[in-house]
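WARN retry 2 of 3 for item q-0093 after timeout on previous attempt; input resubmitted unchanged.
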Amino acid sequence: MKDRRGLTLVELVVAITIMGLSVPVLLTLFAFVAKPSAQTDSIIRCTELAHALMDQVTSKWYDELTAKDVNGDWSVIGPDTGETGSSLYDDVDDYNGFSEALTGNLAGFTRTVVVQYAAVSGMVVVADTSRTNNYKLITVTVTGPGGGSAQVVNLATTANNQQAT
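OK item q-0093 returned
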């Protein structure tokens, strides 16, 4: 019998046909895998940005007042007179209502902050309007391009007023 080397024309056509049919399927599968990966990256970036802002917020005093007033209340939630930007905020509740759209290589990301007084009972934390509570519930939300988002929640206590100035 003759030693056969190489491919016949029929074998070559069959191989090309199989490759032609399988490449589009593989590319479609790759697209389905790549899209969730990009969204996961966006969510991770949102989480990093949320934690960075939360660190900034919780580095501030618990309250403008160093102790409750004569009525047993802490100050009203929100920026105080003259605090027109985050660089002027000096306590955590000044960030209530803070919102920013990031620019540059972070364009498309937005960060918002909500601060509320909170009541704590055992392991349950609920938002409360009473200014006599010694807790503030801080919620930072970051939304990224393409719909990914992350939310970080923290509970500030009067211990924040023990920091050095």
